[in-house]
Amino acid sequence: MARRKKIYEGKAKILYEGPEPGTIVQYFKDDATAFNAQKKDVIEGKGVLNNRLSEYFMTGLAQIGVPTHFIKRINMREQLCRSCEIIPLEIIVRNYAAGSMSTRLGIEEGTQLPRPIVEYCYKDDALGDPLVTEEYIAAFGWASQQDMDDILSLALRVNDYLSGVMFAVGIKLVDFKIEVGRVYDGDFQRLIVADEISPDSCRLWDMETGQKLDKDVFRRDLGNLADAYTEVARRLGVLPKNASPITKPTLIN
């Protein structure tokens, strides 16, 4: 596919104009970042795997009636998506205490929460994506009350789906984040799951050993990030169980 005009470049992806109006091409990079990009590296093959895994999850969500921006995968690193107006929030769903929640509240990592807890962060890298309340969201007009109701519903449906998929392959879904976008059909607006769903945006622990299979491997120097993501892909059937490391991309084209 011919390279098109770049719209935006983030820490892990580049967005390009799509071939048709109302579409974009999402390119997955091999860059790994943590602590608001204070820690950086390039992990060979990471973008290839995240592209395939996000395709897997987005397709699965569509099959159960959860709307997403995903249209199709184009090649190993690119996917065609519907363009949308991103609501400036990161929506975090937590099933177990970990990361910043454990730090803020002094809860031991791995503690099961009494119910899934949904948090909202304002998307602003310069501010470190601060945690915000629904009162802030309403006051600053980032989303309406109807939007918030729809976002909560989407987030919990994604949680149900991901939890089940992961449980079936022996992985505990500790938490994850999604982004939500607005699309318009005439005067009618609806909300869809956008961005990506991958080990970059989830905490995934092996149910028996507690081994981390997500970006915490990179954050905390726990081993090879590519190996962790490859293990997730193998268990889900995205990669053959006997596949070599993802540095050989022909295996997952």
UniProtKB/TrEMBL annotation:
A Pfam family the protein falls into: SAICAR_synt
UniProt entry tagged with the keyword Ligase: yes
EC class: ligase
Pathway(s) annotated for this protein in UniProt: Purine metabolism; IMP biosynthesis via de novo pathway; 5-amino-1-(5-phospho-D-ribosyl)imidazole-4-carboxamide from 5-amino-1-(5-phospho-D-ribosyl)imidazole-4-carboxylate: step 1/2
Domain of life: Bacteria
Gene, per the UniProt record: purC
Positions of the SAICAR synthetase/ADE2 N-terminal domain: 6-235
Reactions catalysed: 5-amino-1-(5-phospho-D-ribosyl)imidazole-4-carboxylate + L-aspartate + ATP = (2S)-2-[5-amino-1-(5-phospho-beta-D-ribosyl)imidazole-4-carboxamido]succinate + ADP + phosphate + 2 H(+)
Name this protein carries in UniProt: Phosphoribosylaminoimidazole-succinocarboxamide synthase
GO MF annotation, one: phosphoribosylaminoimidazolesuccinocarboxamide synthase activity
Protein family membership: Belongs to the SAICAR synthetase family.
Phylogenetic lineage: Bacteria, Pseudomonadati, Pseudomonadota, Alphaproteobacteria, Rhodobacterales
Matches recorded under InterPro entries: SAICAR_synt/ADE2_N (IPR028923), SAICAR_synt_PurC (IPR033934), SAICAR_synth (IPR001636), SAICAR_synthetase (IPR050089), SAICAR_synthetase_CS (IPR018236)
PANTHER family for the chain: MULTIFUNCTIONAL PROTEIN ADE2, SI:DKEY-6E2.2
EC numbers for this chain: 6.3.2.6
